[in-house]
Amino acid sequence: MNSPAPVKKGASVYRDDLDGLRGFAIALVVFFHVFVGRVSGGVDVFLLLSGYFFLGSQVRYALRPYPSLNPWWPFWRTARRLVPALAVVLVATLLGVLLLVPELMSWDLSGQFTASMLYIQNWMLSRQEAAYAAAGVETSPLQHLWSMSVQGQFYLFAILLGLIVATAVSKFRAHPQKARAITIIALAVITVASFLYASRFGLVGTPENYYSFFSRMWEMTLGGILALIPRNITVPQRYSAATAGIGMAMIAITGVVIPTSLAFPGPLTLLPLTGAVLVIVSSPTNTVSQVLSSPPFQWLGKSAYSLYLWHWPLLILSTAVGGYETPPAWLGIAVIAASLVLAHLTHTFVEEPLRQHSPRPLAIDKPVSKARASLRTTAGRGRMVGGIAICLLVATTLSVKPYWDNQIDDAARPLDPKTHPGAGVLLGAEAPDVEALPDPELIAGIYPPIGDGCMVYLDEGPDSFVPNDCVYGDPDAETTIVLAGGSHVEPLGIPFDELGQQHGFKVIPYVRQECPIMLGEFEDDTVSEVCREWSINAFNRIVDLDPDLVISTSTRPEGHAGAAVMTLDMVPDGYLGFWEALRENNIPFIGLRDNPWIFDGAGDPMDPNYCLNAGEAFEDCSIPRDFVYEPVDPAAEYLDGTDGMFSVDTSDWYCIGDTCPPAIGNVYIYRDQNHISNAYAESLAPVIWEVMKPILDKLRVSYT
């Protein structure tokens, strides 16, 4: 095979083989996503090449005579390159979700449409600590766009850096070679700092580290350094085939030898990136580079962006439509074929026509006049129409979250107890034959009021507590009740707030996400070390407050808070320690048996709303009582009414006969797999009072 002649583009030699390397990297991403179910290192190579091509082009332009210092032109040029294909895929994904698998639509996903379009998807996933999961029926079809967001943020950095260099050269007369050298040094410092930051957890990091722009920065700045170093610093021709071949092998084996996505972008990322560096520094006339410069790899490289955009939503939607836990091989092959076709069409009819093909304007050019003149041509008018169409698609994407939020606000309005009595049917209320509410498609986005500033979250330290004005019920009442524990008591703040207003007591929340208060010596891993420490601090505050009563949940299934397994309910040792400490301080306690955590017949977590949205029968979205509840409340033997310690068996609040259904009294019970909904919690107020009033009387706690 003859070596292709290098193509001159401006003052630099364009590396066609690196386009082929980009195609190879994306091919690895698609293959491992579809057939292996984990990351391949291909995205990391893609990020490095983005730095190589984009940052290199920005700095080289800045070093040319008469560079334009107007930031609009590089921004506009970049937007025309990236946004059209992204907008098309996002709107197509939205339509696919709404028409084919509406059960996938959620409050989180609606926000991801906006985040993806604004290139902040990585930060959203980072805040959610969302592990980069394999394809499955409950995986976001937009999860893969975190890397596009990282690139978008890097492009802004590169544009800013280019403008700084251009200003130094054109305004302050810095010598171009000196400016290039200083830029390389600055990028080297950033690369080392970012690499050390990304490696702070060792070989395996966290979801936040995986998505972080600051952790990923070194991959792209390393590419920029390679683009700026002198081009004669390459591996000699006689060794280039070997070094390029070794580099390709290092990239290819990454997904095999590194089993977890959380290894990236830490030290192990050096495996694929060193491989990519070896290809880049090898002479482009070697045998391996000839293969990468061949038409198939060139086509793959040119379509790489669109291929990356399309493959993941197609994989997730088809998996969900087929009802598969993971995609079978035949479906994976079909997804790849469809992705290749759509990538080619998108590249040909969206990317290429709408991108800016003319050179970036210099300060002495008149690009506005040229743009106006182009509108008088057929091609120019076609681009204008295409641009308007893309703007409409962008607007559609950005409207998803506001629309969904508005729908959630409507769904969050109080229900009419005459038509939707909820738990009121347990006290004899009639439930007419009407549709249950709130809409199970929206219910997951309706969060309890306590979560809005009056709850401590996972990322907060053990000394974090909510403001003193977080008081519910009657703030002026003398009687004080503490609502303590993890997120399972969070929705109970709704009925206790109502009861406090009705009966004259204040309610103070000591609630932390995934942190039921646990004290004493216990060996299980139900809660984190931070939660253990927070529990001690919270308890000391409760003792100082000296409340008339503390209320919390008294049981749970086995397993870590937030990730329990399907077992019958039990009382953790840490709960016993908490209750004993309350008893020693003469603080009365009511323990409410926890609501069911819903699992399917195979023992896997099941969101009953997702089940219903998928079209399953009401019975199939229920769970047998004896799958989750012991015949007798396990807390009853410890909270038997002596010393002011009481238990309340709530199982009949959530189960009817032998079944725990997704709705009672025309009200859906669950917000998700294990938290009850606001609407059902509100309907529990009279039921709670029925059992609470006699206990308050025994304790001689005043109320009105």
UniProtKB/TrEMBL annotation:
Which EC number(s) are documented for this chain?
A: 2.3.1.-
* Stated name of the protein: O-acetyltransferase OatA
Specify the Acyltransferase domain's residue ranges: 17-343
Gene (UniProt): oatA1
- Report the superkingdom from the record: Bacteria
Taxonomy of the source species: Bacteria, Bacillati, Actinomycetota, Actinomycetes, Mycobacteriales
A GO cellular component term found in this entry reads: membrane
Bilayer-crossing residues are: 45-63, 83-101, 152-169, 181-198, 210-229, 241-264
Specify the SGNH domain's residue ranges.
466-688
Q: Please name the GO terms of the biological process aspect recorded for this protein, alphabetically.
A: lipopolysaccharide biosynthetic process
State the top-level EC class: transferase
Query: Coiled-coil ranges per the record?
Result: none
Q: Which GO terms describe its molecular function?
A: acyltransferase activity, transferring groups other than amino-acyl groups
Q: Known InterPro entries for this protein?
A: Acyl_transf_3_dom (IPR002656), Acyltransferase_3 (IPR050879), SGNH (IPR043968)
**What keywords does the record list, in alphabetical order?**
Acyltransferase, Membrane, Transferase, Transmembrane, Transmembrane helix
Q: Name one Pfam family in it.
A: Acyl_transf_3
